[in-house]
């Protein structure tokens, strides 16, 4: 692994990746148990690559496929989530 390869991404950097407001990521964090960013003592959120993959899938389902939040939650449950990740060309 290269030294320049990041492990954690700030909420601002993550929001910029998806062209969304940081408030949407905070909302999704509350709605989806799969998103668990690291928080420092100040409460700043730092997302791992796994978090970003999950956000990418939620973004794809919600914004690109038109799923409701509940529909996206249902799609991410159990084996379906793993199947979505393995079949997905968005990650």
Strand order, largest beta sheet = 1-3-2
What quaternary form is this? Answer: single chain
Estimate what percentage of residues fall within beta strands.
5-15%
Determine Rg (CA atoms, Å): 13 Å
Number of strands: 3
Describe the structure.
- The protein has helices at residues 11-18, 22-31, 49-64, 69-75, 78-87, and strands at 9-10, 38-39, 45-47.
- The protein has 91 residues and is mainly α.
- It starts with 8 loop residues before the first strand and ends with a helix.
Keyword list:
91 residues; mainly alpha; 56% helix
Characterize this entry briefly:
This protein has 91 residues and is mainly alpha-helical.
Strand and helix map with partners:
Elements (H helix, E strand, L loop, with lengths): L8 E2 H8 L3 H10 L6 E2 L5 E3 L1 H16 L4 H7 L2 H10 L4
């Amino acid at each position: 692994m290269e030294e320049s390869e990041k492990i954690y991404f700030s909420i601002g950097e993550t929001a910029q990746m998806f062209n969304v407001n940081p408030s949407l990521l905070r909302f999704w964090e509350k709605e989806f148990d799969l998103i668990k960013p690291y928080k420092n003592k100040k409460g700043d959120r730092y997302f791992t690559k796994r978090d970003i993959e999950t956000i990418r899938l939620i973004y794809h389902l919600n914004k690109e496929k038109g799923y409701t939040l509940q529909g996206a939650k249902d799609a991410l449950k159990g084996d379906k989530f793993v199947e979505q990740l393995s079949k997905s060309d968005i990650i």
